[in-house]
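User: Can you predict the 3D structure for this chain?
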Amino acid sequence: MRIAVIVARVLLGLLFFVFGLNGFLHFMPNPPPTPAAGAFFGALIATHYMFFLIFGTQVVGGALLLIGVAVPFALVLLAPVVVNILFFHIFLSPDLLPMALVVAALELFLAWYHRAAFAPLFGGAVRT
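Assistant: Here is the predicted structure, written as structure tokens:
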């Protein structure tokens, strides 16, 4: 089980770190967006800060996962990004939905493994 957790953590960390950096450095081409996805990206670009916030969160969360430091915090940091990725691909760009499902599955698997760290958030008893 420990090996599966390490593989999931590193894989999710790599995905977020690389794609987060790509948001700043543009070293990988993006596929052409659907009209709805293009409108969504246009609105994000118009805000002038959302891309920095989204991609910065991905880089920081991915780096934390890669080095294995504060993994539960990284999962909490990345959870809204994962939800957004999932719903973006469900409603606006279903061509990459399988990849979004893999990202969500990795996030859920790691959150389940670290569930003791999240117990206080859900009213779980804290043992001393």
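DSSP finds six helices and no strands in the chain. Residues 2-25 form the longest helix (24 residues).
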